[in-house]
C-alpha cells in the first residue's frame, strides 16, 4: 500500500504541483480512506520527501548506468541530457516552482544531491574529457562544474525563464549544448558533431511515425 | 563638496564594504564635520545610491565607447571583460556581498541596469555575431543572453565561489571565455584565437617591466 500511495502522489505532484494536491485527492484516486494514508505517512510533507528521495536515487542509478555505457565523455553528457528530457518531460513547472518556494525540506534533498552527486559527476566528466583530449586543458574544472550544476536549476527558474515564454526542456537543451561547446577541443568538436548528426537522424527517423 | 564626499565614500566602500564604513569615517577622511555631510545627504544609504548610480552611468558610457571601437563582436566581448577587470580590480568582495545582502535599494539599481542595459547589449552582441557568421546561427539568443547576464552576478556569489577559495576576476574570466567559446562558429574561433594570442603577447610584453 505504501508504494501505491507514493506512486499515486508522485503522479499527482508531477501533474499539478504540490500545493494544490491534498491528502483527500490522493485517497480518492486510490479508492482508499485518508485514514489509510495516515497509517503510512504523518503528512503530505513526508510523502513528498519520500517521493523526492526515491526520484533522486532512481536518477543516480540511471546516470551511473549511462556513465558505464558511454564510449566517451561527450557522449556521456549528451546521454544525460537525453535522460533529463525523458525524466522531466511529464513534470509540470508548478511542481518545481512549488518545491523551490514552499517546501524547503524537499528542496534541501535536491541541494544535497546537487552538492554531492551532480558536482562529483560533472567534475569526473570534465576530468575524463581533458584526459582524452576532448575538452580543453586550459579550463578551470571546479568553476565550470559549478556553472553546469547551477544551470540545471536555472532552467526551472521562473524569474529567468517564465514558463509562459520558455519551454523548460528547450532551456535545458540550449544551456547544456552551450556548456559542452564551451569546453570542447577541436578533436572534441569532431566527436560532438558526429553525435549531433546521429541524433538528428534518429529524430528524423522517429518523426514520420510519431 | 558633494562630489568630494561621493568620491571619498566610493573609495571607502570599495575597500571595506558598506556596512563597516560610518558617516564619521567619511567625515574624518575629508577633514570635515559630519554636519557638512548631512547638508548634502540624508544618510549613508543616499550616498550609496548616488555612488552606485554614478558607477553604472560610467560603466555604460565606457562600454558604449568600446562597442563603437571594436572591429567585431568577438573583440567587443573580450574588451568588455578587460574593462570589467580594470574596473572591479580594486573592489573588495565585501562591497558586493554587502550590497546583495543588506542594501536592497542599491542592488535594485544594479538589477535595473542588468535587465535593461546589460541584457540589451548582450543581445545586440549576439545578433551582430550571428549576422557576421562569427556566432552559430542555431543558438537561442534570449536564453544565452540571460545566461551571460546572470553569470556576471554569479562570480560575486559567495556561496558558489567563496572568496577564500576563488579569485573573483578569475571566475569572471573563466565564465566569460567559456560563454564566448560556446557560441563561436569555426570562423569565430579563428578570430577568437587570434585575439587570445594578441592578448597573451601583450601580457608577456607587460610582465617583465611590471
TrEMBL record, chains A, B:
GO terms for molecular function: DNA-binding transcription factor activity; transcription cis-regulatory region binding. The keyword DNA-binding applies. Residues 22-41 bind DNA. It comes from the Bacteria. The keyword Repressor applies. Keywords: DNA-binding, Repressor, Transcription, Transcription regulation. Gene3D superfamilies: Tetracycline Repressor, domain 2. InterPro entries: Homeodomain-like_sf, HTH-type_TetR-like_transc_reg, HTH_TetR, Tet_transcr_reg_TetR-rel_C_sf. Residues 1-59 form the HTH tetR-type domain. It holds the Pfam family TetR_N. PANTHER family: HTH-TYPE TRANSCRIPTIONAL REGULATOR RUTR (PTHR30055), HTH-TYPE TRANSCRIPTIONAL REPRESSOR KSTR2 (PTHR30055:SF175). This is TetR/AcrR family transcriptional regulator. The lineage of its organism: Bacteria, Pseudomonadati, Bacteroidota, Cytophagia, Cytophagales.
